[in-house]
Each structure stands twice: as structure tokens, then as C-alpha cells.
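Priority: low. Protein: Sulfotransferase. Input follows.
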Amino acid sequence: MGCSIWRTRLNFGQLKAQSKVSHQLGAQTHWNRTKTISAVQELPGSNELHSILQQIGHVQQQISNGERAKAEHVDNSISVFNNFGTKKFPQAIIIGVKKGGTRALLEFLRIHPDVRAVGAEPHFFDRFYDKGLEWYKNLMPRTLDGQITMEKTPSYFVTKEAPRRVFAMSRHTKLIVVVRDPVTRAVSDYTQTLSKNPGLPTFQNLVFKNSSRGLIDTSWSAVRIGIYAKHLESWLQYFPLSRLLFVSGERLVTDPAGEMGRVQDFLGLKRVITDKHFYFNQTKGFPCLKKPEGSSRPRCLGKSKGRPHPRIPPEVLLRLRDFYRPFNLKFYQMTGQDFGWD
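Result:
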């Protein structure tokens, strides 16, 4: 009868042990089982009890192993999910130009489900080329078949070595250049620098070598970047014109859906980004993305975008426009597009 009572108590204890076993590790279970066996060895029918406890321990060990196997399966599933897809060199790069609208273009492209892009500018082909192509590829997001890997670094367009380096990576790379009226672009460039360095000389003091003679200082980067025809010549030494798409920075503001249609066609993507994605922000003066489903606010570019420009004397802007005119006309001829800057 003593053994019968102990069996009843042990069966109840077995149920309790099984209900808590998911919180016990193998080592702790073994220690508890050893203590229990030692405690009952001196009781009547201890041999039978010892056998029962061994059976309970065997069951607990099986459950514990099962829980660990399940956990390992979940961990492995998470690992596979995080590593879904593969890292590839970008099939398309936004190579320019600074203050042309490259950030807006990239943010608009991110709407497309088949575009994966690096957030920060890698600056691989101008600053970090010595780190090697594997380092560069490792910066890229993972993509699935049918998706496009992209990056943007606007300074590539004006970097002498960049065309050769990009070509060495892949001659099939598609190149996108966002261009803007070079006069307006120069003022925007100056405005950005001025916000970081309030002690900067005036625009007119920097733009002229000799203000009385009206000679433009082409060594100043704000001026030099806008000589688009000169920079394009370097790229055409390595890539055919068909590999380049020139996006109008002005039309990206006035007709974002239209320009994005051209970009999607160039990249071989379905036209997913349309008018329904945009609204015009009157305060900032450029389009914003309508708020995504589940978001509390629309997506606009940062506070630094759309900042007011300082007042530049009209005669200074006129001289700068005269300087750019022949370069603009040559750029129109090279690209087969009239951007209407004159």
C-alpha cells in the first residue's frame, strides 16, 4: 500500500514537472533528479521508487531535448531570414550632380519594391577605392532575383578617375545623372556651404577671379561642377550614351511622376511610381511623398532641403549665365536633350 500511495504522489509530481519542463535546462533537471533519488532511497519500496523516478527523468530529458531542438530550429530560421537574398554590385548608380536633386530621386525610387539602395553615400569610386571591390559590395543591401541594387554618390560625375573605375567593375552599369540649371545649382551649393560656415565670403567674391573684368573662377567647385559637358566627355570615353540617363532636376520638382516614369523605363522596371505617390509641399517648394499606409505623416526631405537662398546681385547671375551658355548648348547637343536653362 505504501508503494501505491507513492505512485499516486509521483504521478502527480510527474504532471507538474512536465508542465514546467520548458523552463528547465538539462543540467538543472539532472541535479534535481539526483537529489530526489537520494531522498527516497531510504523509504519503503525504495527500489521501485528509484525505477519510477528514473522513468520520469527519461521523459523530462526527452522533452528538454525537444524544446532545445525547437529553439535551434527557430534560431536557424531567423538566421536564414536575415541573410535572405545576396549582395551584388550595383546595377545602377546615381553619379551626379551635387545639389541637382539626387536625394529626392533616390527617396522616390525607394517606393519601388524592386529597388534596393544604400542609404548613405558610399564614395567608393572617389574616396575609398583602395578598400577594394569586396568591401564595396559588402556595403550593398541584399537583393532577390529581379531586384535592382543601387547607390548614389553625386561627386562621381566630376571625379576624373570614376568613369574608368566604374567601368572596371562592370561595363553594363547604368548611370543616372540629375542635372539642374548650373546657375541655380551654384547658388544652392554656396547656400549649403554658407549654412555650415557663416563666415564664408560673399557669392560674388568667390565666383569671380576679377570682378571688374567679369572673369569667372572655374577653380571654385560651385562653378566647376556646373560645366556638365566637360565632365560628360570623361564618362563617354568608357560608356555609350545609351548607358546614361539625364534627369531634369527642374522637372523632378514640377512633374515628379513624369520624370520617375522615365527613370523606371531606363532601369527596366514596371511603372509602379505614379502621380498617386506625390503631393506638392507649398512651404518647402518641392514635392513630398504621400504618407505610406500605417504612417502618421507624409515623407518629405530633411530641413536642409528647400532652404532659402541668399540674395545675389542680378548682374552677377547674368554674368554667370553668360559664362555657362556655350557649355549648356554643348551639353544639349551631347545628350540630345534641351533642358531650357537659357
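The mean pLDDT is 81. The CA atoms of residues 115 and 148 lie 5 Å apart.
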